[in-house]
Structures are given as structure tokens and as C-alpha cells.
Please model this.
Amino acid sequence: MLNIVHMTVNGKEVELAVDPRESLLETLRNRLGLTSVKKGCEVGECGACTVLVDGEAIDSCIYLTMWAEGRSIMTVEGLKGPNGELSTIQKAFIEEAAVQCGFCTPGLIMTAVEIVGTGKRYNRDERRTCADAQGMKTFSTPWSVLWRRRTRWWENKRGMQVR
Model:
């Protein structure tokens, strides 16, 4: 039996008939063609499938599409400007060469969007926790340090006091 789900994806209203067992990852990637949402571990550990649901970063591989009823979903495709230009966070990742192979970069970018968007003031340990929660502990140290440094730069740019 299929259920009808209404949600907003990257600013556009969407209505879909979905299997109640279908993950948001499957819906976004396979039905809506949003290929920035990557299929990695499928158990919510790697962060490659990270999207924002009502502004909160979630692992879409373990989030059922049914749970997205009435919610706003944002993927990397939704970050681009009106003329297709990259967002400032995407540009920051490029400037810092923080891309490695690129597979998980969209998930990292969405996590950065959430972190910057909260307006919260993060101290060094909290920033490290955010990075580790995204799976960055498994990446090379220089790349993780670049990401943390850039996160701190964004906090300063937004007028947040970094402790």
C-alpha cells in the first residue's frame, strides 16, 4: 500500500506516493533525482546522506519519507543561487580545498549549513564534536583541521564570539 506524502524539497512543494518503508534517501535520490544525497553506509554512521529537515541535519538513509510529511527538506542542490552560483559555504569548502574525493562533501556541506545557521556560539570542543559527529574523525587530520578552521571563520564572519 502506498501513502501520499506532502513536503517541500529545496523550496518546491512535492506530493509523492511512497511505500511506508521507503527512506528519504531513496525518495530524494531515486524519485527526485537529487544526486547530492549519497548512499553510503545505510545505517546513519557516515553522513554522506545528510540533508536538512526543517533546518536540522539528519541522516536520510535512516529517516523514513513518511516522517517528512509537511516538512521542509534541503539538499545541496537547494543551496545554489538564482543564477546557479555556489553558496558561500560551498565556496568556502573549495577555497580551503576541503573536498578530498568528494563523495561525502555534500553531507559535510549540509552539516556546515546547519551549524552556521543555528547562530550558536561554539567553543573548540563543541566544534570538534560537530565535526566528529559528521564522521570527520575518520578523515585525514589536515582536512578535518581545515574544516574546523573554516567553521570558526564563518562564526567570526557572522559576528559570533568564538571561545
